[in-house]
Design a protein that fits this description.
Arc Repressor Mutant, subunit A, Beta-Lactamase, 5-stranded antiparallel beta sheet
């Protein structure tokens, strides 16, 4: 049935991929030739919002990050395959000829964009409802010259669906459990004002203190599932921070000063989760958000530790730098070598998203001292 692997080997490889997302590409890409396809998309659709919330693109010779950004920000609402998912149920397979209306300007526009960005004109897909709200599926993409899928291609797709569906169910359940475990173990009982965001910047989880801040609506609120700042100038910056963090464009934390209506200052920090970290948190988790009360008087650098995830020693060095001491003085004071102090400083730069001491001091000045 498949030239690259027999069914038993394919099923075994799929079950391994279910608990290790990095294996999906190695599994799917060799199958592209069996379908005369140039690439594949392994996607997850949230039927509550009608949006694709995760897409693993494999095989395409293009800038995948750019394609995904354009899809999320501009073109995704015209996705013809998401429309099929939203208007059908159960286990189904389909091709573009079954549902695309070339006389519809929306359909035609989406296909033009898809062909320009991916080189794809036709697709052969399957979709499977994993839960009442979530559908996962695989879409194999073909060029205009390759043409529509034939009956034999459709039969192979049904066979592939039968083989991969148990693994996709397992993978989703595994990732969801990891998200819950990571959240429960790392964040939910710490008392932090914290939230977890998905790849579209929507809130997946909130701690009780974060919910209290949102309930007050000052200085933050949640609109359409996304964290927003009440102040318009802060909101623009916050939206940019979130977009950068969840898209993997910038893998450094960002910090944003906020002021409540009563004048109280707060600091919002957003930490992108790299793909390695996301595996620990589940595939849907893309960033963590922490909010600290910048006017809260915490001793021994605890505020800096909480704001930027610094160790106690890193927080102490940061506070001393902000007080005007140079690194050599701090090294002598702490009885450590200057090289060790420089190692601490590099870690501090990484965690705070700065690259110079002057920038670090300016950032720290925004946090209550």
């Amino acid at each position: 049935m498949f030239e690259s692997l027999d069914s038993a080997a394919l099923r075994a490889a799929a079950l391994e991929a279910a608990v290790d997302d990095a294996r999906w590409a190695a599994l799917i890409e060799p199958l592209l030739g069996d379908f005369s396809a140039i690439g594949a998309v392994l996607g997850v659709v949230d039927r509550r919002s009608g949006e694709m919330i995760h897409a693993g693109m494999m095989g395409f010779d293009t800038d995948i990050d750019r394609v995904w950004r354009e899809y999320v920000e501009e073109t995704g609402t015209g996705d013809t395959q998401v429309r099929v998912v939203m208007t059908s149920a159960g286990s189904r397979s389909f091709a573009d000829g079954d549902h695309v209306d070339l006389d519809d300007p929306v359909d035609a526009g989406y296909l033009r964009w898809q062909e320009a960005r991916l080189g794809s004109r036709h697709h052969l897909s399957f979709a499977e409802d994993i839960s009442p709200d979530i559908t996962v599926g695989l879409s194999l993409h073909r060029t205009r010259s390759t043409g529509h899928a034939c009956a034999a291609d459709r039969a192979r797709m049904v066979s592939l669906q039968n083989i991969l569906t148990p693994a996709l169910r397992l993978g989703f359940t595994h990732a969801d459990a990891l998200t819950d475990s990571y959240w429960e173990g790392a964040l939910s009982h710490t008392g932090n004002i914290a939230a977890m965001l998905d790849e579209r910047g929507r809130v997946l989880r909130m701690t009780a203190p974060f919910e209290e801040v949102i309930h007050k609506g000052d200085p933050l609120l949640v609109s359409a599932g996304r964290i927003r700042a009440v102040a318009a100038d802060r909101d623009h910056m916050l939206c940019q921070f979130v977009a950068d963090a969840v898209s993997q464009r910038i893998l450094k934390p960002g910090a944003l000063a906020l002021t409540c209506a009563n004048g109280r200052r707060m600091m919002l920090n957003i930490y992108p989760l790299s793909f390695e970290q996301r595996f620990l948190a589940g595939y849907r988790a893309a960033a963590l958000v922490f909010v600290v009360d910048a006017d809260q008087k915490l001793a021994d650098g605890a505020l800096l530790q909480q704001a930027f995830g610094l160790t106690r020693r890193e927080a102490l060095i940061t506070a001393r730098l902000a007080s005007g001491h140079d690194l050599a003085e701090i090294a002598d004071e702490l009885a450590i070598s200057r090289e060790t102090a420089r190692v601490h400083l590099r870690n501090i730069f990484s965690k705070t998203g700065t690259n110079r001491q002057s920038a670090l001091v300016r950032l720290v000045s925004l946090v209550g001292r």
